[in-house]
Design brief:
The chain is mainly beta. Helices cover 9% and strands 51% of the residues. The chain is built from eight helices and 45 strands. The protein has a 22-stranded antiparallel barrel. A five-stranded mixed beta sheet has the order 3-8-9-6-7. Strands 14-13-20 form a three-stranded mixed beta sheet, with no helix packed on it. 48% of the residues are buried.
């Protein structure tokens, strides 16, 4: 059933869609004799070229020209207007994508496959920030393809929810060209000047070789204050986190205490990107395309603020700021390097393609843990820098706060053969190999802690993981009649996983004594796909699809059993948390029984989803109006769910979930000058089985999945002279209400309502207006036109969720700027 709030959200979306569709028909009728048509984007979603309207799948494709017209600078901005996508992000390059109700907060790999051309970019295995992907610049892209629904047959294990492909413009033989873009803007509400510069040059070298260079440099001002309280001004924060009746509180005088330092723009960001590719055609039917990409993202702090309201129902703060006891910056640094090689050899009857990728990514994230550490050692009510205190973590390179390093390296190879003859029978055969190494390191060193607790190493953890995967796949289709086609696909996979763990420190299970464990797993299976499509006429395609997707299993951080009488508070706390989950889920305050020993799961198995989908793709009025709609039902088995035991995160296989939804896209050429796009997505994702370990009862929503997403784009282009036109674009994106679970809290079947976070929906509007010539364009733009303040998500955390860390990620305030672009041929 749709909730009352969701119904209200749907009201304006449906009204807008119906109204705009009616207007589209009227205006398109008036312009029917003009000869203009909506252009179609060529995609390679099925590993062969086709248009969106010819492909029997739920696809959104955005061309490079539309990306430029709308002023989109990164994939996050684009994803907000794509139906069925949910995002969790703590800043540039730290975004987790989810599609069709499949939450990816837990687990071993991401739910959405992310490709840069032919190279899959897997997420880190154990990062506290989630299964985040890099956020490449969209400058000089040919197109972006978003495939919804499991893509296990052609794209493998990390594409249970769908797949995103960013396809760069290839080098062009025999043609010199260059382009550039300069964007200057100013952010309100505490922000400042932002600057972005892009450039591209295509260099032909003889008749058979060309090189394409693309560079981008971004400097974005921060808008969030970091406020450091003077030493000794406030007592230790020892309050409880969950409260459904009392608002979030801090120690008395916390927000009015005198400040030691006030840092403006604490979340400023720089992004530097270089991409180089070459195309060599020594003979007509052979293409060799090597490519290199390097990107460095640096952020002085996350886009997070302290919030008001209640722990279960937070509200936007009165000031974009977060407060700290010590001067502990929280920087994030993300470096990515990719080398790839694509070979294409066209023979008489088929095309051979080889795609090799070798990339590595190194992420370093710090978070202030002063208050968590103070509470963990049981400091008496007093001030943070009391003689018995442990002080801040630091100094560099061990600080300035609790620090996490995620290093990921992947070598992949895909070799496939694709039929190219005309005829009713078409086929693809391929082999995929992946060698993924992912290392998770975390440390918290407190030089002042020695006198208080006898040790300066609070927490040190080193956890490397290796995954090796081999897959063979194939897909075949038969055109039974000119209008009816059937497609069958299979992918058989086998993977092995190995993980070890070394930890020691005051907050670990054996204190200063190193604790070492190892785990391994392996599995194999087959993912099928079945598809039927029928053309009612040349402009209307109907299709039905059944497909399965899977995700690799993995290993948890070790949480050993507490022996009877063991005084280690870490062991005892986790043991009691397990009892609260399993033995006393509806009475979490029940006394912990030291005679009962339970074991947290050391590993979690693969999960899978079956997707059943029907859809239509239609064009009317000589391709001036396009309407694509798909409806789906999914069954998610053994879902990998993130949960917690007294501060120790782990992934468990939860209860089965069922998901159904609808996705709709409308494009209309209203007149020669007006172009309209409306997208809508509805997702209903619920657990159908209760699961004590995850803490989710039957009937509860899958976390972090909005029921409603919607977007509308209206573009205008008015010619005023030869090769000169006025342009404008208005875009509005809406994300509906969703729930989430705070990190660090032990959720049970009985206490979930006291912890589950409810986030309201929000809408963001952008506007741009300008002029365009044959080789240039200049635009004035306003992003976040209404200066909407939205709570996006709880901040992904390294340290525990306590009142001191009720922080949420927020969006950038109103930003006004000028965008000038130019090209040379």
């Amino acid at each position: 059933m749709i909730s009352r709030s969701a119904a209200r959200q749907l009201t304006w979306v449906i009204a807008l869609t119906v109204g705009l569709a009616s207007a589209a028909t009227v205006y398109a009728d008036a312009a029917y004799e003009s000869g203009d048509q909506l252009s179609e984007v060529v995609v390679t979603a099925t590993k062969r070229e086709s248009t969106v309207q010819e492909t029997s799948a739920s696809i959104t494709a955005v061309s490079g020209a539309e990306i430029a017209d709308r002023g989109l600078v990164d994939f996050n901005s684009l994803a907000q207007s794509v139906p069925g996508i949910a995002m969790r992000t703590s800043g540039p390059g730290q975004t987790e994508f989810e599609m069709r109700g499949l939450n990816s907060a837990g687990g071993n790999t991401s739910m959405v496959g992310f490709y840069l051309d032919e190279t899959p970019l897997s997420s880190p295995a154990s990062a506290q920030l989630g299964k985040e992907e890099i956020d490449p610049s969209l400058y000089d892209l040919s197109r972006v393809e978003v495939l919804r629904g499991p893509q296990g047959t052609l794209y493998g294990s990390s594409s249970m929810g769908g797949t995103v492909k960013l396809v760069p413009n290839p080098p062009e033989l025999g043609k010199f060209s260059a382009s550039g873009e300069d964007v200057v803007s100013d952010t309100a509400s505490g922000g400042g000047i932002n600057h972005k510069i892009n450039g591209m040059v295509n260099l032909p070298i003889g008749d058979t070789l060309a090189v394409r260079l693309v560079g981008s440099e971004t400097s974005d001002s921060g808008w969030i204050k970091r406020l450091v309280i003077q030493d000794g001004a406030v007592p230790v924060d020892t309050g409880a986190y969950n409260s459904t009746t009392n608002p979030l509180t801090r120690p008395p005088g916390f927000y009015t205490a005198p400040l030691q330092e006030e840092i403006d723009g604490a979340n400023s960001t720089t992004i530097d990107t270089v991409r180089m590719s070459a195309l060599w055609k020594p003979i007509d039917n052979l293409s060799i395309t090597p490519a290199v990409m390097w990107q460095l993202t640096q952020q002085a702090g996350p886009d997070a603020v302290d919030v008001n309201g209640y722990s279960t129902h937070p509200s936007v703060p009165s000031e974009n700021a977060h407060w700290e006891i010590y001067d502990s910056p929280e920087p994030q640094r993300d470096r990515f390097t990719l080398v790839s090689l694509k070979l294409e050899y066209q023979l008489e009857h088929f095309l051979i393609t080889s795609a090799t990728g070798d990339w590595n990514r190194n992420t370093l994230v710090s978070q202030d843990s002063s208050e968590e550490n103070a509470g963990a050692v049981g400091l008496p009510s007093g001030v943070y820098d009391a003689p018995a205190g442990i002080g801040p973590t630091g100094p560099a390179p061990n600080g300035p706060a609790t620090t996490e390093k995620d290093f990921t390296r992947q070598i992949s190879e895909e070799l496939r053969v694709t039929s190219s003859d005309a005829g009713p029978f078409q086929w693809i055969l391929g082999y995929f190999y992946q060698d993924l190494y992912s290392e998770w390191d975390e440390w918290s060193i407190a030089p002042q802690a020695g006198p208080a607790i006898g040790i300066t190493n609070l927490y040190v953890d080193y956890q490397p993981q290796t995954i090796v995967q081999n897959s063979v796949f194939g897909e075949a289709s038969w055109q039974f009649t000119p209008d009816f086609k059937a497609t069958v696909g299979l992918r058989h996979y086998r993977y092995t996983l190995g993980q070890s763990n070394l930890e020691y420190g005051a907050f670990t299970v054996l204190g200063p004594t190193p604790y070492v464990t190892a785990a391994s797993s392996n599995a194999s299976g087959t993912d099928p796909k079945f598809d039927l499509s029928y053309n009612l006429d040349k402009d209307i395609l109907l299709y039905a699809t059944a497909a399965k997707g899977f995700r690799l299993g993995g290993a948890n951080q070790p949480i050993p059993v507490a022996a009877p009488g063991n005084p280690n508070p870490v062991l005892v706390g986790n043991e009691c948390a397990l009892q609260a989950k399993i033995l006393n889920p509806f009475n979490p305050a029940a006394a912990c029984n030291p005679a009962v020993l339970l074991q947290a799961p050391a590993t979690f198995s693969s999960d899978s989803v079956w997707n059943y989908e029907i859809g239509e793709k239609s064009a009317f009025l000589d391709h001036r109006l396009i309407a694509n709609v798909s409806a789906y039902y999914e069954r998610w088995s053994n879902p990998q769910i993130a949960t917690n035991l007294s501060g120790y995160g782990l992934t468990v296989n939860g209860g089965t979930a069922r998901i159904f939804g609808i996705e709709a896209e409308l494009q209309a050429l209203l007149t020669r000058e007006w172009n309209l796009g409306v997208n809508f997505g509805y997702t209903n994702a619920q657990f159908t089985q209760e699961n004590a370990l995850s803490g989710y009862p039957s009937g509860y929503k899958v976390p972090d999945i909005p029921e409603v997403t919607a977007a509308g784009t209206l573009r205008w282009k008015h010619p005023i002279a030869n090769n000169l036109a006025l342009t404008a674009a208005l875009e509005a994106d809406y994300v509906g209400a969703r729930t989430d679970a705070p990190y660090g809290e032990t959720l049970t079947l009985g206490n979930i309502n006291s912890y589950l976070v409810h986030l309201p929906g929000y809408a963001i509007a952008n506007f741009r207006v300008g002029a365009a010539g044959e080789a240039w364009a200049a635009n004035l733009f306003v992003n976040n036109l209404t200066n909407k303040e939205a709570l996006l998500d709880p901040e992904p955390q390294i340290v525990l969720q306590i009142p001191a860390y009720v922080r949420y990620l927020v969006n950038r305030p109103l930003t006004v700027g000028v965008d000038v672009s130019y090209r040379f041929n």
